[in-house]
Specification:
Radius of gyration: 20 Å
Order of helices and strands: HHHHHHHHHHH
Strand content: under 5%
């Protein structure tokens, strides 16, 4: 087995980053291996050498993008949950723009198992974060951590997948950090203080569900 040196790692990362940018801009099918190789300033053969085929390259891109939004840490609060990571990324579009575009493209591809794997990777990262923050006392104990993680993931990804509608509703041409800032406080108010004035609707829902489960 051939050893991997620093130059190999640098080349591999450059190819991967070029693929993320081109797939985000043009879609997976239209971003050819030749286009990706040209953008990375390598030969198509070198792309194949590092990733095997286009599916292998896509898997590497998925893993890298998912990690960008699920494993970053901030002090004692533990891993960021997906919605926080997405908001952070939207505040630095120069650095995160290609990855956000890639994320939107891949998650919108309903025919791809790879899209399922990408979503599942982000969901699992969010679930881990929910459990860590629950244990550290940052969030209240959750009756269904997996369900909470799913809701947070959907909230976090909505501005990316539905970027055009978010921008249009906010009266701007594109989803900028300033536009995101407009919904940050209402969102945090919702998560911090809740939405309903009391727990009567929650209790009614629990009672209704318990009645449905009874024979």
């Amino acid at each position: 087995m051939r050893s991997v040196n620093v130059d190999d790692l640098t080349t591999r990362a450059r190819i991967r980053n070029s693929a993320i940018e081109l797939i985000g801009a043009h879609g997976f099918d239209r971003a050819s291996m030749r286009m990706i190789a040209q953008a990375a300033e390598v030969s198509p053969a070198l792309v194949v050498h590092h990733f095997g085929d286009k599916d292998g390259l896509r898997a590497a891109c998925n893993a890298h993008v998912a990690a960008m939004f699920t494993v970053e840490r901030e002090g004692v609060d533990g891993a960021q949950i997906t919605i926080q990571a997405i908001q952070t990324a939207l505040g630095d579009l120069d650095a995160y723009g290609p990855a956000l575009n890639y994320l939107a493209r891949m998650l919108s591809d309903g025919s791809s198992r790879s899209a399922d794997d990408l979503f599942d990777g982000i969901l699992q990262g969010t679930l881990q974060s929910v459990r860590e923050q629950e244990q550290s006392g940052v969030i209240h104990p959750q009756s269904d951590p997996a369900g909470t993680a799913l809701i947070l993931t959907l909230f976090g990804l909505a501005p990316i997948v539905l970027a055009r509608h978010f921008s249009r509703s906010l009266g701007v041409q594109e989803l900028t950090p300033a536009a995101i800032a407009r919904i940050t406080v209402p969102l945090l108010e919702l998560f911090t203080h809740g939405f309903y004035a009391d727990d009567s609707i929650l209790n009614a829902a629990k009672t209704a569900m318990e009645n449905e489960e009874q024979p």
